[in-house]
Amino acid sequence: MQQLHDADPADARTIERELDLVWRRSGSPAMDLLMSRGQDALEAGEVETAIGHFSALIDHAPDFAEAWHRRATAFYRQEEFGLAISDLGRALALNPQHFNAMYGLGVILESLDRPDPAFRAYSQVLELYPTHERALEAVDRLQAQVTGISL
């Protein structure tokens, strides 16, 4: 995480991909298969199927933060924002450095017209990953609205 924090944008993207690969591994081939099937279903637009796989994964590996994050993504696609926020909260409780879960929380809060907490979520992403492009854009977008000061 320190390398990510200190990296230039190009290196940071490489580190981000490496972290994503690490965070996707549960330590169990069976659980990794559920993760893979859930992700494949999500990418194919089969959101209900994805939620089923991620829910089964969570049932068997409740301390696996990435399972909660991925299911939150599926809930978000269904516009089940309360369920998505709940799952992101659990993912962040298990992995407080999960900047993608933090970013997702910011996206949901912003879509619910809650700019102050969205701004805080995006700012927390930048504390861990200062070159996160989408979080930088979001902070810039919300800055004047939240603080009343345009930068």
TrEMBL record:
Classification via PROSITE patterns: TPR
Q: Which UniProt keywords apply?
A: Repeat, TPR repeat
What stretches of residues are TPR repeats? Answer: 65-98, 99-132
Question: Which protein are we looking at?
Answer: TPR domain protein
Organism (species) = Pseudooceanicola batsensis (strain ATCC BAA-863 / DSM 15984 / KCTC 12145 / HTCC2597) (Oceanicola batsensis)
